[in-house]
Every structure is written in C-alpha cells, then in structure tokens.
Amino acid sequence: MSTVTVRGTVVIDVDACKGCRLCIDACPPQVLVMTGHEVNARGYRYPQLLAGCTGCKACSQICPDFVFQVYKYETPMEVPV
Amino acid sequence: MPDARIVPTDRPPAEPARLVDDFTPALIDVGAHHLCPGCGEPVAMRLAMEALAELELVRRAIVVFGIGCYTAFSNNLDVEVLQALHGRAPSVATGVKRMRPDTTVLTIQGDGDMVSEGLQEVLHAAARGEAVTCVMLNNGVFGETGGHMTATTVIGQRTKNSIDGRDAEYHGYPILIGDLIARLQGAVYVARGSVHNAGAVARTQKMFKRAFEAQIAGAGFSFVEVLTMCPTGWFIPTPEGPDYMTQTLGEVHIMGELKVDGRIRTTEELHDDNVRKQREMEDALARGGIHP
Amino acid sequence: MSGGAAVGVTISRAPAAQSGRKLMTGSEALARSMIAAGCRFFAGYPMTPFTEVLEHMARLLPASGGVCMNAESEIEAVGMAWGAAATGALAATGSTGQGLSLMQESLAEITLARLPLVVLNMARGQGDYFQATRGGGHGDYRHVVLAPKDAAEAVELVGLAFELTTRWRNPVVVMGDYYLAHTSRTVEIPPPRAPSVPAWALDGSSGGSGAAKLVSFLGSYKQRDDVGYNLADHYRACAAETKAMVAGVTPLAETHHVDDAEVIAVAFGTPARFVLAAVRELRAEGARVGLVRPITLFPFPSAALAAAASGAKVVAVYENNQGQMVDDVRLSLLGAVPVEFIGGLSLDDSGFGIGPELEVGEVRRRIEALLGRGTSGA
Question: Which terminus of chain C has a lower count of CB atoms within 10 Å, N or C?
C-alpha cells in the first residue's frame, strides 16, 4: 500500500460555496475534487478533500466566497492511499 | 455510498495544527455576498483589507466605493465606507483626505467606473498628488450590466455590445490606465496585479502594501490595478476564468509595477521582461532543467 | 427682515461682530459669512458670476484653517465637497446654473446619502428657479432654497443655510446672481462659529469594531446579511426625512403694504428690490399696491402669500425669466385670486448681467396696468 505525505488540511464551509471550481485547478497537489451529484443548501456542487493537502493556502487565496479554513499540521503525517 | 477517499473537512483537525488562513478574512463582517461564482473582485477586496490590517491601518481607514458589482460588497466590510457615484470616487476621496489627513483613504472602482466614466477624475487626483490610493478592479467589462464593453476591453474581446469582439477600427483601442497615471508627476506608486492564481494573489497583496505605505509616507498618489475574473461577463464556463484572463486581458494589461520610487516602466517594458524571462526559462529547460 | 414685516419666524440676527460693518461686494460677503458660519471646505470651478466667490474662498479659507480646492470641473468640485461633508466638516460648493447642471447627479445622491452641504447658485438672471426648487437632478428629493435680496441679507441667510443643512442633513441652496455678486454694500460679518463634529461623521476610527460606519446613498446601515442594499427601505426612510424637513423648516417671506392692497406684487432675490421701489412710488401716490417677497423659495411661503393676497384683486408676479415662480404662486393661491405674470427676461448682451428692462419705471408701468382692472384678469 502506498502512502502520501499530509502537511495540512482544510475545513470547508460547504454551504458558502458557489461551486465555481477555481480551487480545483488552483490546488498544487490536486487533492480537491468537486462532488458529483451532491449539492449544498444553495444547490451548488462543492469541493471535497483527498489525502495529500500541504496547507499551502492556494485554495483559500483564490476562493471568492471564503469557504476554506486552512491548517498546517505541527508534524507531517504519512497517510495510506 | 460515501467515497472512502474523501477526507473529512467539516471540523478543525484533532491533531496539533496551526490555523494559517481563516474563512472570513479580518475586516470582512459577512463572507456571503451576491457576486457571481468565480468572480475575482472579492479576492481583490480581501487583499486590500488584509493589507490594511497588516499595516495596522484599520482604525484610520476610509474606503470610498464607486459603482459596479463590487458595490454590493461594501456593506460587508468592517472598515468605514463612503459610497460615491460611478466615476467620482477620486474626487470624493480627495475631499475626505483633505479634511482628514491622518486617515488612509482608498477608492474601490472598476474599469467602467474609473476608465470609462471617470477618467478625468483619477488623472487629476493623480496629478495633484493626492495622498490617496485608487484601486481599479479591471475585468474589461461592465459586469453589473451583464458584460458590456469598457475603455479597457481588449481588442477581440467579446462583450454584449461588441459581440464579434472589440474591433479597433470600429470601437477604438483600450486604455492602459496604469501607464497614463505613471506619467503624472504626482503619482508615486503604480502597479498592476491580478488574482488569477495564488502566486498572483501574493504579489498583488504586496502591491497593496506598497501603495498604502506610499500614502502613509505622504509621498503622493498611489494606484493599484487588479485584473479580476468575470466569467459571467466573459460568457465562459466559470472554471475557465483564470486561463481566459491570462490569454486575453493579461496579454494586454501586463502585470507588474509601473512606477516605483519615481522610476517608470511601461506596459511594453513589462511585456518584454516577461518574454525575456520566458525565454530564459525555456533555455534553462533545454539545457537540462532549472533545478539547482 | 429690514424694511417690512416678516411673516412666519424672523431670521435670528447674529450678535454684532467686533469688527463692525464693512463695505464689500456680495461675493466677498458670501465668502466671509460662510467661513464665519464654520465652513471648512470649499471647492469650485470658475464661472461668471460665481468666480469671485471662489477667489475670495481661495484666499480666505486656508487662512482660517480650511481647504479650498480649485477643482478641475464642477463635477469634481461637488465630489470633493461630498467627501469633505462625509467627514463631518461643514462644506460648500457652488457655481452658476450651468455648472450646477453638471453637479446635479452628485447633488441628488448627496441628498439621498443625507449629508449636509451648502450650495451657492450665482445665477445668470432667474432662470434657475425650477432647477433649484425642484431638486434639479434625478430621483425623489428636495433642497431648501434661500434667496437673499442683497449682500446684507445674504450674510444672514448663509448662516441660516449652514444651520438648516446641519439640522436636517439635507443640502441647502443659496440663490444669488450677478447683481448680488458684483455690487457692494456695508455688511456685518458675524463672529466665527465652531461647529461640532456629528456622530455619523467618518474618521476611520470605527473600523475593526464590528460596527464600522457607512455613509451611502444606498442606505447608511450595515445589513449584515447577504442581500446587499435594500433601496426600497432606504428611499422610504429618505421620504420620511424629507417630509419632516418640509414641515420643520419655517417658510420665510417679507411683506410690504399688503393689508389693503388691491394689487400684490410677488418677486424674489435682487429684482425684488426694483419691484419694491416701484411699489413704494405707487404707494406714495396713493395706489393700493403691496409686495410679497419669498425668502425661502422651498419650502415656498404659500400660507403667508395666501394670507397677504386674501383681499387683493390681482397678484402680479415679477421674475427675470419666462415665468417659473409664478407656478408656485398659483399653487399657493389655488385660484382664489387671479395671477398675472408681469416679468420677463432682462439680460445684457452677455446673458450674464441685468438688462435695461429691469428698471423701476418699467416695473411700475406693468403694475399700474393692473390697477383698477378688477378680477377678470386670470
């Protein structure tokens, strides 16, 4: 089983999202994916996190709706994928 | 059936971690707004607010808003706001600053507001060397009316009233407002940023800080233009906003600092710099990579 | 007011200045009285006959701790005054009717932002009556309009203008003209006033408090949800404020010889002095003529006019224009007394100054023509 280094994580305010997808392309490790059929309270698809976040803030810096809270772990973790 | 690969993101992590970026930035009361999905304007305004906070200017800042989509956001800010008319913010900011020289005064305007309707206002404010910072959110369209041609719309850009693309012969040429302002003696800091990716966002935030620092120093007029995505007014799918911007507006309104400490660099020079850097990068790659 | 019985409440006279009375032009009197009233910001763009007010402000205001901006257009002048007013400083701007036309978009929104501002209209003739009294720009608002007859009264009305604009947070227009601007009189400038800074004024200090101030023509209150601005609510609130202001501002008028008058002349501003001279000449000869001079053009002194005209056979309106205030006179009297327009354009060739038709003998002939005519002239 392979592992991925996780240096950070995000909290996503799902209902604030307008589904613009800017975060998906902005994410350097490409660990954000849009929901397929699930939508939030406003009817928009929204991003979900896969293992491998680096806590780089690329998503939160480009998000027009401020839906991300970004954390950096004190100690990076190896997580199985 | 929940996807097992998805990491929970509904609460802060249990492991020791430090918060590096919060939902609603400092000085924004209410994050929710009525601007479109993928709009670049809230990002640009966030940067201006964060720069004010970083320089500890929060308790002496007055923001003068023009009229555009961004006006809807003026209600969300936790800084003092004065609403001006379309095109008129630089004069209104002048009145504020002259009566309250101890405050940091900035305008938030769009390209339609500043360059189409209010060109004379911003040029005179710059020429007078008013110690204010004018901010222009440039998406090359009147976004609020639904995507119409402005004075910064680039050649070939489709808008609702230049539906086959802006035609130089018929519609004339776009104005590079930063270059005009940089030429004026009263302007001390002029920069053009963008919010199409995290790197551009970081550089633009530095521009805001330098502009405010110039204002605090009483050096003169400062100006920050920010290219912002407007997928609605560009008639493109929302996620394509950043790429469309770099390929259209970004090719004409080149990002960079146009005037620092009295030294002027034209948009053409910024463009040549970019071409040179690109070539150096390609040469380095051809030689076997750019890694040390 | 001097020379006649004031109807309604008499304008309070300022205490005598130590400097006493001095001879000066109307333009200088306007400038000095604005500064005495506490005006700390002025912006303007040269245009005859407003120009000299700007010259005096440029010289006098900085010396009094204020700022006078040589704006690059009337549009920029009113914008600058807007910004200054939002900081709580007493601010003024002005122009001639043409320049005020350029300012109207901002004047409308300044009113809907509920900001105080004094606006001078140094008009050419009296053709700007409608522009001043009907708001002049887009949207639903009114301005208080004061029309002095000479420099001495202008000094008093400038003081009143700053009081009213501060009290009602609504722009107040002071109407002048070429004759007021360019003729000299002895006037007494009142001692300087130091106005306090109102609570709504912007100074940046409420930033970061969670309750940062907002001054906006879209509604100056934070809505704290994601709906943006509720303009309908704001416009309703503004309408209520305007209604209160219209009810709260005392209409002013000066009357002469109205008690037994058969013909009541009505005139405002500097031409009213010519009309008064004609009325006095006729009175001296025993003719039953009188004069009502509206001092507030908005709110219009309708009740005073109706009372004065109640026993008259005809009301004769003199204006240096094609007939504008005559509409308000007719609205005030509601058909109770016939109203005749006896005015007309009296301009010199430049269009700025006063022409030969505004002459006491000529005005007198027009009033005489109505004497003994009975009530058939409506």
Answer: C
Does C143 lie in the same domain as C28? yes
Do C306 and C175 reside in the same domain of the chain?
no
Predicted TM-score of the model (pTM)? 0.94
Q: Are C92 and C117 in contact (CB under 8 A)?
A: yes
Do C80 and C71 contact (CB within 8 A), yes or no?
yes
C180 lies in the same domain as C96: yes
The Cα A64–Cα C362 span in angstroms is 72
CATH number at C151 reads: 3.40.50.970
Which pLDDT belongs to residue C224? 55
Q: For domain A3-75, which architecture applies? A: 2-Layer Sandwich (3.30)
Tell me the backbone φ, ψ of residue C24, rounded to 5 degrees: -160, 165
Does C224 map to a domain? no
The full 3-state SS of chain B, as one line of letters, equals CCCCCCECCCCCCCCCEEEEECCCCCCECCCCCCCCCCCCHHHHHHHHHHHHHHCCCHHHEEEEECCCHHHHHHHHECCEEEECCCCCHHHHHHHHHHHCCCCEEEEEEEHHHHHHHCHHHHHHHHHCCCCCEEEEEECCEECCCCCEECCCCCCCCCECCECCCCCHHHHCCCCCHHHHHHCCCCEEEEEEEECCCHHHHHHHHHHHHHHHHHHHCCCCEEEEEEECCCHHHHCCCHHHHHHHHHHCHHHHCCCEEEEECCEECCHHHHHHHHHHHHHHHHHHHHCCCCCC
For residue C200, being part of any structural domain is answered with no
Boundary of a domain, candidates C141, C169, C188? C188
pLDDT tens across B77-87, in order?
999 999 999 99
Mean pLDDT lowest among A31-35, B38-42, C368-372: C368-372
Q: Do B95 and C80 touch (CB under 8 A)?
A: yes
Q: Measured on CA atoms in the order C221, C226, C229, C234, is the torsion positive or negative?
A: negative
All residues of chain B having their beta carbon less than 8 Å from the beta carbon of residue C109 are 85
Q: State the CATH number of the domain containing residue C285.
A: 3.40.50.920
**Chains within contact range of chain B (3+ C-beta pairs < 8 Å):** A, C
* Number of structural domains found in chain C: 2
C219 found inside a domain: no
The C-alpha atoms of residue C152 and residue C351 are separated, in whole angstroms, by 25
**A11 with B12: Cβ contact below 8 A:** yes
Q: Residue B83 and residue C71: Cβ atoms within 8 Å?
A: no
Domain holding C348, by residue range, is: 253-371
CB C268 within 8 A of CB C325: yes
Do the domain assignments include residue C131? yes
Q: Give the up-direction half-sphere exposure of residue C155: CA atoms within 13 A in the CB hemisphere.
A: 28
Domain match, C273 and C366 both: yes
> Based on the domain organization, do C128 and C268 belong to the same domain?
no
- ipTM here: 0.94
- Answer whether B191's CB lies under 8 Å from B178's CB: yes
For the stretch B197-232, pLDDT in tens is: 999 999 999 999 999 999 999 989 999 999 999 999
Between positions 204 and 223 of B, the ones with CB within 8 A of C are none
